[in-house]
Amino acid sequence: MRITILVAALAAVSACSPSIPDSAAGVGFDDYSEYESRRQASAAAQTGATAVPPAGAMSDEVSTTAVTTQPLSATTTASADDTDSETLARETQAALAATRANSSQQPLRANPNNPAPETVETASGISTENDFDAVGEARSIESDAELIARNREQYQVVQPTALPSRSGNTGPNIVEYALSTKHPVGAKIYSRIGINKQSRFERNCAKYSSADRAQIDFLANGGPNRDKMGLDPDGDGYACGWNPAPFRIAVNG
After folding, report:
1. How far is Cα of residue 200 from the mean position of the Cα atoms in its chain?
2. Average pLDDT in the 191-206 region?
3. 243: nearest Cα among 184, 176, 180, 173
4. What are the residue boundaries of the structural domains of the chain, listed by start?
5. C-alpha–C-alpha distance, residues 232 and 238, integer Å
6. In what ranges is there compositional bias, type Polar residues (predicted)?
7. Residues 6+ apart with CB under 8 A from 214
8. Is pLDDT above 90 for 236?
């Protein structure tokens, strides 16, 4: 009797207690893909947006059954290697054509049957002209004697003749005058009179291109005894600073 009452009491208590959810359900225990699909479907239902397709889904645009099969063109089917090969072949043909145009000779293509190239040997040793044996074979003492005799027959001696004389009056010879004097520049030998001698000297000497020309003109007009143009104000017999020393050195050393 007591057992029956106890069982009935436990049944009544169980009926009054709320149900406890299954703690085994949730993200940590269900498949993640299914959980993500349910979560996205719930979010789409709340916002009115289209649900994101689950992972691995494929649209009709890329489906093999939805795409119409069309033949590929020749350009599409050509691979990158084929394109590079054609380009290289065209460039090679163009280079060969340019070579033929420049040398007018066909280029030699690589072939095991081609003849071997000509071997060029580098010269070594002394030349034939410096080789006594080679010279001895080509020439002899008799032939050299004949060559010397022929050269002597063609040899001509030109006898010296007298130097040509100068015609006409060429003016004073400053070299002869330099060698006939011995005094240095600035030593007064001849008397000079007049006023403004320095200014006349500078003005008149500026007309000559060189001191040699001034000395020639000075001697041609009465110098060294007289100085009509004022070219020798110090009376040394040398006009416009002309110096006889280089001529003396050239002769006497």
Report:
1. 63
2. 89
3. 184
4. 174-252
5. 6
6. 61-72, 100-113
7. 205, 208, 231, 239, 240, 242
8. yes
- Looking at per-residue pLDDT, the higher value among 104 and 142 belongs to 142
Which tokens is 39 given? Answer: 């979560």
Position with higher pLDDT, 70 vs 177: 177
DSSP designation for 1: -
pLDDT reading at 24 higher than 50 = no
160: cis peptide before it, omega within 30°? no
56 DSSP 8-state letter: T
pLDDT above 90 (res 245): yes
For 120-149, the pLDDT digits (tens) are 666 666 777 777 787 778 888 888 899 999
Do 231 and 223 touch, CB atoms closer than 8 A?
Answer: yes
Helix runs in 79-173, H state only: 80-103, 132-138, 141-154
Both structure tokens of 155: 């040899």
Cβ–Cβ < 8 Å for 51, 44: yes
Per the CB < 8 A criterion, the answer to whether 143 and 149 are in contact is no
